[in-house]
Amino acid sequence: MASNTSLPFRRSFALLASIALIAGPVAGGAKQAFAQAQNSGVGAGIQAPAAANNQTPPANTPTMSMNPAMNAGPASVADLAAGLLNAVVNISTSQKVKDEGDGPATPKVPDNSPFQDFFNDFFKNRNNDDSNRKVSSLGSGFVIDPAGYIVTNNHVIEGADDIEAIFPDGTKLKAKLIGTDTKTDLSVLKVEPKHPLTAVKFGDSAKMRIGDWVMAIGNPFGLGGSVTIGIVSARGRNINAGPYDNFIQTDAAINKGNSGGPLFNMKGEVIGINTAIISPSGGSIGIGFAVPSELAEGVVNQLRDFGETRRGWLGVRIQPVTDDVATSLGLGSAKGALVAGVIKGGPVDNGTIKAGDIILKFDGKDVDEMRDLPRVVAESPVGKAVDVIIFRDGKEQTVKVTLGRLEDSDQAAAASTDKDKKPQLAPDGNGNRDGIINPDGSDDGNDDGTDGEDQGDNQQQSPQAQPPAQASSAILGMKLATLTAENRKSFGIADSVDGVVITEVAPGSAAAEKGLKPGDVVVEVAQEFVQTPSAASEKVSSLKREGRRNAQMMIASPKGDLRFIAVPLE
Q: Which DSSP symbol is given to 131?
């Protein structure tokens, strides 16, 4: 009986010992195996312990084959960061803000009150205090020249009375504002160091691809020298921050205080300037935006050299090319920027580019969307002669234009009067005048934005020179009439507007669906100027015979705002 009772015990003891021997080496390597799986995504190299002939392997026999390179984790950026940290500075600003209002009235106390002296002393001292108070803000910047030139965001230093650059070693230097550009939110500062500073250089953001690694260094929430890493999440983002939006989107953590700091590629080159984030909480959720170096470098160089920007100016008004417009003009796909008007006295007022042209390429750069054109024009040097590929009369043509200076157009706009102000691109549903090459609204002169050869001096014709009035014609769900003094007055149509006036629009018609209404003026049909209802009707009929699906029309509002639409012919 004794032998029967001891056998299960011996078997149990042996089983436990066996488990301990197996679990020991496996458990010891479990942490390593987990780290390896985390770093490499695979479990290669893990081997089962030897168990031949039921013999326990020697203690010095390895139970797991590990690759040292796989155990090291992702490639470190420590060496890269170490060489860049000293070039990134904290930007501290202070500003005097005047307190609004006089504050609460001084409380009244009874005469001979024991507290009278206390109240008098307290409020007398308070009233003598300066009504201005100082507010401070923190941002980031980076050195681009050992001599002390620093780049940051305009919104970091805007309105500041004092600007200070704080370096990683604790050195504080007063900074002078050299130049700023609100359209790209960039500024250049200058400090006077005792010794040459560590500087970084710009790289080519155009070479960055979605998925490339990037590193941000900055001063988030006042924590200077913070390094974060991520990838390029997207390119060419438009966040409606300015007329030249072309942001790099990244998931590298960017928070308040990172503004103005650099976004580096893995070569240590600045390929972006961290500017904005999307965040409901105010902290990083992995959606940050940086001004690309391909845009920023030119602006920074101009600010450094001239203290201001000197942008190219084409002098046209543009609007998007819709599918309907592309079809009506015979363009294969909706691309480019549609010229809605040409500014009188501008660089292309000589007929080089006309209203109705579609700009497809500018100085060798494709214009895929309307918003691409203002940016590539602004980046071009003033006075440069460039080739522009346009789509006109059903085919591509190349014209050469010489750019003016954007700021020059501002002076012309200020000199023009309201009476002489020419038509502008019509606002969209939100009241925005998108697509104007001159974002400052330099709408000078009397030109209505159409082809001068087609219109000649018709805008200045006297009533006697106008064509005889005709009976109204009905086309595409709208009734048209010749412009006369009577209907100009009735609809409030400016004298500078010419064409045929829309007097009625049938509800549910093609014209109504395109937003046309009585008082609008049809200036052109299929790039041909029309002055009579019959001319407009005949042009629409010819388009139908040609098998066209849409009729492109230039429409002027009663005030003269121009826009192009494509009205379906079916």
A: S
- The two most distant CA atoms of the chain are separated, in Å, by 136
CA distance 301 to 314: 22
Q: What is the mean pLDDT of residues 347-372?
A: 89
- Asked if 370 contacts 320 with a C-beta cutoff of 8 angstroms, the reply is yes
Distance of CA 33 to the CA centre of its chain: 46
C-beta neighbour count of 163 within 10 angstroms: 24
Active site (catalytic) residues: 155, 185, 259
Q: How far is CA 90 from the centre of its chain?
A: 25
SS (H, E, C) 316-360: EEEEECCHHHHHHHCCCCCCCEEEEEECCCCCCCCCCCCCCCEEE
Q: b or e along 425-443 (b: 16 or more beta carbons within 10 Å of the residue's beta carbon)?
A: bbeeeeeebbbbbbbeebb
pLDDT digit string, tens, across residues 417-445:
343 443 333 333 333 333 222 222 333 33
Q: Which two tokens stand for residue 485?
A: 């003094």
For residue 508, name the pLDDT band (cuts at 50, 70, 90): confident
From 497, 494, 514, 516, select the one nearest 505 (Cα to Cα). 516
Total count of residues recorded for the chain: 570
What is residue 69's three-state secondary structure? helix
Report residue 480 as tokens: 């048209």
